[in-house]
């Protein structure tokens, strides 16, 4: 594993279970123990019912592209070799939306509504980032 130059998430008490599950290549998200709604990003209060009871549950890893952008300019030296690249909002089957990248295809071929599946990019010994690839494509 080479040196990773892009910003990394910092684990805190609220999101440590998320990053630990991604490192194990089995993403789990926070779910309200009262109403059952998944939530992302992790937080102490359910936005649906305002309960504070929380559990962590594995997610399916399947979703659809909700928003897609093609970044054509580098916004720092760490991204120069990636241009052009895709930045998307993915809506998971569980109802949450998260920013990520769709990889494994040209960035301009990613379309709203495309089915995607979760894959992981191991960027350090401690962090694996959740990324997505088009459903039906082999893992790169």
Q: What is the end-to-end distance?
A: 16 Å
Number of strands: 8
The dominant shape is globular
Q: Quickly count the helices.
A: 1
Poorly predicted runs of 5 or more residues: none
Name of the CATH architecture of the largest domain: Beta Barrel
Keyword list:
140 residues, OB fold (Dihydrolipoamide Acetyltransferase, E2P), 2 domains, 3-stranded antiparallel sheet, 1 helix, globular
What does this structure look like?
The chain is mainly beta and 140 residues long. It folds into two domains: 12-59, no CATH class; 60-140, OB fold (Dihydrolipoamide Acetyltransferase, E2P), CATH 2.40.50. 6% of the residues lie in helices and 35% in strands. It has one helix and eight strands; from the N terminus they run H-E-E-E-E-E-E-E-E. The chain has one helix at 16-23, and strands at residues 28-32, 38-39, 54-58, 62-71, 85-92, 97-100, 115-122, 128-134. A five-stranded antiparallel sheet has the order 6-5-4-7-8. The protein has a three-stranded antiparallel sheet with strand order 2-1-3. The longest helix is centred in the first third of the chain and has 8 residues, at 16-23. The protein is globular, with a radius of gyration of 16 Å. The protein starts with 15 loop residues before the first helix and ends in a 6-residue tail after the last strand. 19% of the residues are buried. The model has no long low-confidence stretch (mean pLDDT 94).
């Amino acid at each position: 594993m080479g040196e990773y130059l892009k910003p990394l998430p910092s684990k805190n008490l609220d999101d440590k279970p998320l990053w630990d599950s991604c490192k194990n290549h089995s993403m789990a998200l926070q779910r309200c123990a009262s109403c059952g709604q998944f939530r992302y990003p992790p937080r102490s209060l359910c936005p649906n019912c305002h309960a504070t009871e929380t559990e962590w549950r594995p997610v399916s890893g399947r979703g659809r592209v909700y928003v897609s952008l093609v970044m054509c300019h580098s916004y720092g030296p760490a991204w120069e070799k990636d241009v052009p690249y895709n930045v998307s909002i993915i809506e998971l089957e569980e109802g949450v939306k998260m920013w990520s990248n769709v990889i494994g295809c040209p960035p301009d071929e990613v379309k709203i509504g495309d089915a995607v599946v979760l894959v992981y990019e191991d960027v350090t010994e401690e962090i694996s980032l959740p990324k997505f690839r088009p459903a039906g494509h082999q893992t790169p």
